[in-house]
Amino acid sequence: MRTSRPIRRVLAVVGALTCAVLTLASCTDSVARTPSGDGQGFVSGGGTASVIEVADRVPAPHVEGVTLQGEALSLSDFAGDVIVLNVWGSWCAPCRAEAPTLQEVAKQTRRDGVQFVGLNTRDQAAAALAFESRFGIHYPSLVDSDGQLQLAFSESLPPSAIPSTLVIDRDGQVAARVLGATDYTQLKGLVDDVAAETK
To answer: CA 6 → CA 3, 11, 12, 129, distances in Å?
Structure first.
């Protein structure tokens, strides 16, 4: 028996949709079982965010330097706080897109013992300062003009991951990361979860 042309079209669409759903399901399943981070202890999360289970966390490297304002700064200055370290450059379009989110979450969580620190990498000082002014960034940023400070985080962040964000827990251990630009819901959720942890 011959099938009419409209029915054949409907069957083709249904078949394509079924194939797409099955493909998506298999991708989702494989992502859920495959840890991200090249064996560094990261567990796959939503989007580009990854969370490290407490038992698998490693200490963040000791990083210190000079801020864009010329002041000495060390991550150890914030011992006992949750630290959100954001790697950025004024030349980076996704960095510009996420900048308002970073400043907003920094403002909202400061009273919870959360300190944001920027890591301004491979940038010119004048352009970086203009970026901070344009987006109203009030937290400090370390100058990393040659990318060496970012390399200290090579176990947690690929050197080319700009922008990227690490959340460091109150014990100084890397608790979460976002590769690429983050958004408000994602970042606020990660920061709130880590800030709510008890020792």
So the answer is: 8, 9, 10, 62
